[in-house]
Amino acid sequence: MKAKSLLLFCVCALLVACGGVDPNSPQGKRQTLFKQMLKTSEDLGGMLRGRLAFDAPRFAQGAQQLDELSRQPWQHFPQIAESERSSAKPEVWQEQQRFQQLARELEAATSALRTASAQQPLTAQAVAPLVQRVEDSCETCHKAFRAY
């Protein structure tokens, strides 16, 4: 009985391990980048919404990091649709021009936030509309191209 239970546990563990995404695959690389972008933008938004104390140098550093991250995931979307399960809708590949346009809009929004964050004195009121623009860019793309 113990041997059967152990065997069943091992089989289940292997099946769970096989369900992950290869971190070196295009999908794995872009998922990592998107998670880093989410963490960074959550920290910035948290400073503006009072969840975290507003720290101007830390905010500026986060804006710079978000701008750099916003330019990276797009290279990890292959030209043809992937065969593996993904959170990307088929429209990513069917509507490449629109997808690329939204990527550039996000990059422009993060660039504007980075530029404004370098201005002194840096205040939450000065950057709040720019953070909202970044968040709106993310939401627009997710609605069009992400399968939930």
Automatic annotation (TrEMBL):
Chain positions recorded as heme c binding sites: 138, 141-142
A GO term, aspect molecular function: electron transfer activity
Changes after translation: Binds 1 heme group per subunit.
Keywords: Electron transport, Heme, Iron, Metal-binding, Signal, Transport
Membrane spanning residue stretches: none
Signal peptide (residue range): 1-19
Taxonomic superkingdom: Bacteria
InterPro entries listed in its UniProt record: Cyt_c/b562, Cyt_c_II, Cyt_c_prime
A single BP term in Gene Ontology: electron transport chain
GO cellular component terms listed in the entry, alphabetical order: periplasmic space
Protein name: Cytochrome c
UniProt lineage: Bacteria, Pseudomonadati, Pseudomonadota, Gammaproteobacteria, Pseudomonadales
